[in-house]
Design goal:
alpha/beta; Aspartate Aminotransferase, domain 1; Aspartate Aminotransferase, domain 2; 2 domains; about 15% strand; globular
Amino acid sequence: MSSPDSLQIPENLLPRDGRFGSGPSKIRSAQIDALVTDASTYLGTSHRQSTVRAKVGQIREGLSSLFSLPEGYEVVLGNGGSTCFWDAATFHLIERKSEHLAFGEFSSKFAAAASAAPHLEDPVVITSEPGRHPFAESRDDVDLYALTHNETSTGVMMPISRPAGATGLVAVDATSGAGALPVDPTQFDCYYFAPQKSFASDGGLWLALLSPAAVERVESVAASGRWTPAFFDLKIALDNSRLNQTYNTPALTTLHLLASQIEWFNAHGGLEFSAGRSARSAEILYSWADASEFARPFVENPEMRSTVVGTIDFTPEVDAALVASILRRHGVLDTEPYRKLGRNQLRIAMFPAVDSEDVAALCASINWIVGQL
């Protein structure tokens, strides 16, 4: 067996770009180039003036096109990321009681936020073990169903559809799924996400696609007089978004990178293009794992295997952490598993910016490392 410290992966096996992190994700060089081109008239300028507001308008229009939003749907944005949006939703999207599907670290956090909110009834929380997702149940006393399109911690994805017979709003955490998974906007009322994953930008921003019913909920709760901190007030966010701005100062670089990625998606075929890139990478990764003698997909049901974030278990004889450390030494980054899952595995992001050829090269590099060890 070769010493791990002495291993040198052959250059011809390595990915051309070694960024496989599940967020922040790989940013394409074309996005950086576009930012540099605009830097002197864009960076360091007021977010209340036309230059930045035009960029926000470009983002809102681009997302409406990308997701083929029906008439009356609105694109809303605010600072704070998806974690902030969970708290905001407890103030202005849930009237009294919500139902949550919890099947990993992140899908559980919205449920925890709703449970802690003193003005709401205790939520219904339907759980399943990591590696699969549960199913929503229609209830007369629930006014919001909280689904998750892609569980980033475990590599499980689920199709988005309204629970049969449900009358409440459907809110979908699409933080790592938006832009990389197909979705029918008629099946949700709120589809929210952050830009540091499929949209190849930085964090600190949330975006939400709201149906007319969700807009009505936001406005009716605001009119009811429910006290809300301004930072979490979705009515304030809605009003500002209609002016192509945010309530408080956003990160201008984040907006610019996001706009470039949306433009790239739409210019090449929209959601079919971007989701197709992730699907091709996933086919390569899972086919490799299925054929491997030392690796297998953690998610056993192929229909639940994420095409965005792949989790691959290793046999006990192969130390996944050691493999990840050797990869990192060669510039192949962030393949380590989600820390709280505690499994002997790698977690590999396959966002649209990641080239499928690099996923194939990653698989070849792993084979070479294990062979040497």
